[in-house]
Structures are given as C-alpha cells and as structure tokens.
Amino acid sequence: MNETKTLVEKITEGIQEKKGKNIIIADLSGIEDTICKFFIICQGNSPSQILAITDSVRDYVKKTTGEKVYAIDGLRNAQWVAMDYGNIMVHIFLPEARAHYNLETLWADAKLTAIPDLD
User: Fold this and answer.
1) pLDDT (tens digit, 9 = 90+) per residue, 54-112?
2) Which letter does DSSP use for residue 29 in this model?
3) Which of 93, 119, 3 is nearest to 40 (CA)?
C-alpha cells in the first residue's frame, strides 16, 4: 500500500506542476468490487491545460517513481482525460464536464480528501 500512497502523492504533484485545480482524492480501498483503489480528480481551464496536466503527470510519475501509465483516454477532445495507473485512475476534466459527470458523488462511500490549490 505504501507504493500506492507514494504514487498518489507523485500524481498529485504532477497535477500541481501545471496548476491543476480542485484536486480530490477518492479513497475507494474500503469499498468492495471497485476497479481501483483510488480516483484522483482534478480540472484544468482549457483543453490545452488538460493536455499539459496529462503530460506532466505521465512524465513526473515516470521520472520520480519509474511507473508507466497503462492507458490514457480522452486526448482527442481533451474535455475529460482518464489515466490508468492500475490501482489509481486519474481524471482530468474541464469544469463543465466535471460538473456534468460529478464523479465525486458517484462514490458516496469513498473517503474524499481535498488538496488545496497552489497559487
């Protein structure tokens, strides 16, 4: 579990590197039959910022932990990009797409942790 916690921390730092906002970490480890242990949800202000956050997370995590992302989806329109790190799914949204899908409320049993924005 320590490797997973370190990966959560490094993903969060990669998001903050490109000024990703409203970061929420959803701990799903106490919920049975979930596809992963953690969701990390954040947002950027434009498709280009979404792509920059995605690149930052991928590169920073690889550099600091050696972990590679298994898959990335949503790059074409960059309104919602999902990154699969096995036990961790990273969701990077435009604000309107995040409000529409509202992933935080889908997992009502998860422990949610808000990470303060860096300004």
Assistant:
1) 999 999 999 999 999 999 999 999 999 999 999 999 999 999 999 999 998 887 789 99
2) T
3) 93
Q: Return the structure tokens found at 85.
A: 């790190």
CA–CA distance, 56 with 13 (Å, rounded to integer): 9
Residue 78, by phi and psi: left (phi above 0), alpha (psi -120 to 50) or beta? left
Sequence-ordered strand ranges (E) for 1-84: 21-27, 38-43, 71-73, 80-84
Token readout for 18 is: 């490109």
Count the neighbouring beta carbons within 10 Å of the beta carbon of residue 104: 17
- In this structure, the chain runs to a length of 119
Q: How far apart are the first and last CA of the chain?
A: 30
Q: Diameter of the chain by CA atoms?
A: 37
